[in-house]
Amino acid sequence: MLRKRSVSLSGHATSVALEPEFWAVLDEIGAHVGLGHAGLMKRIDERRGRVPLASSCRLLALAWAGGDRSFAEQDSSD
């Protein structure tokens, strides 16, 4: 079952549907880097290139779960 969250990115309303397990990891990442839901989605969106947003979220969550903390180390102007 997918859980949908809505956010405004670059002035456009969008929503991302992910499995709850992915949202749990993304919430952990947001807490670690000091970003709320919207800030985290904005940072992911800025770094995803041409990869779909939901895919970028899943890939980040998998990398984080595997021990890759480079996302937290990247400089951001959030």
UniProtKB/TrEMBL annotation:
<protein>
    <submittedName>
        <fullName>Ribbon-helix-helix domain-containing protein</fullName>
    </submittedName>
</protein>
<dbReference type="InterPro" id="IPR038268">
    <property type="entry name" value="RHH_sf"/>
</dbReference>
<dbReference type="Pfam" id="PF13467">
    <property type="entry name" value="RHH_4"/>
</dbReference>
<dbReference type="InterPro" id="IPR027373">
    <property type="entry name" value="RHH_dom"/>
</dbReference>
<feature type="domain" description="Ribbon-helix-helix">
    <location>
        <begin position="3"/>
        <end position="64"/>
    </location>
</feature>
